[in-house]
Amino acid sequence: MANKIDEEDIFASLFAPLTEGDESNNDPSAMSLVDHLEELRWRIFKSLIAVAVMSVLAFVFRVYIINFLELPLPKQADAAIGGGKPIVTGLTEGITTFLMISIAVGIVFSLPVILYQAWAFISPGLYVKEKKYAVPFIFIGVALFAVGVSLGYIVLQYPVQWLVTFSAGSFTELVSASSYFTFVAFFMLAFGVVFEIPLVLTFLAVVELISVKTLTKKRAVAHVSMWVAATFLTPGADLYSPIFLGVSMSFLYELSIIFIKLTTRKK
């Protein structure tokens, strides 16, 4: 008899409607997920608005930007392209090149807003001692990216000159606007992203995912891996580009260790 009563109680509990207490236990987690998704949507939307505004401004000054980015072209290319200007091979290539450059420049100049929105999204999950690094991280991230892009522009002349002159004896080098500016964008972006290494490693150390001990222990492997990666990240086959990028990556790795020590020494 007792077993029958127990079975009836279990059966009834399985199909009983949720009580008010049960709903209150389930609702917060469901609303939390919805709130996070909604916040992520608005963070992305605000970042896209910043990119759009900066892209429009870049499009207004597109002629000056184009002239500035064309400076690394060697004189050997001037004889092959009319007036030292890259050529366009299609009716819409000119406008699409302008749009591509404007969007790329817009992303670069809206980086402070993007970094802020990214930090604002993840900061609720951090401790108070971790949130205080928000402003320094944003400024340091922008500064490092700017230094990386600037160094990439300085080094850009070497792979461009090598690529233009390598086959000059056998072919007439017609540099198209699309190929040249795509190459420039990826090359400078590679340097800009690489210079974010200290920021990323320091952040991982602040949230206790890595430590100085780990970075020091893996130092030799890290340096070899970064120099190998430098040869693939630089699309030109010249000797100078991977050397500049490899030296920069090794320097930034060591700088990251210093940043982490300064950041976590109080801890």
Describe what you observe in this structure.
This protein is mainly α. The protein is built from 14 helices and no strands. The protein is flat and about 60 Å long. It starts with a helix and ends with a helix. The relative contact order is 0.09. Mean pLDDT is 76; it is low at 9-31.
Biggest sheet architecture: none
Structural class, from secondary structure content?
Answer: mainly alpha
Tell me the radius of gyration: 27 Å
Shape estimate:
flat
What's the end-to-end separation, in Å? 63 Å
Low-confidence stretches: 9-31
What keyword list fits this structure?
flat; 267 residues; single chain; mainly alpha
Concise synopsis of the structure shown:
77% of the residues lie in helices and 0% in strands. It is mostly helical and 267 residues long.
Would you spell out the secondary-structure blueprint of this structure?
Blueprint: H1 2-15, H2 20-60, H3 62-69, H4 75-78, H5 93-109, H6 111-122, H7 128-131, H8 134-155, H9 157-166, H10 177-194, H11 197-206, H12 212-217, H13 219-233, H14 240-264
Helix pairs in contact: 2-5, 2-6, 5-10, 6-8, 8-10, 11-14, 13-14
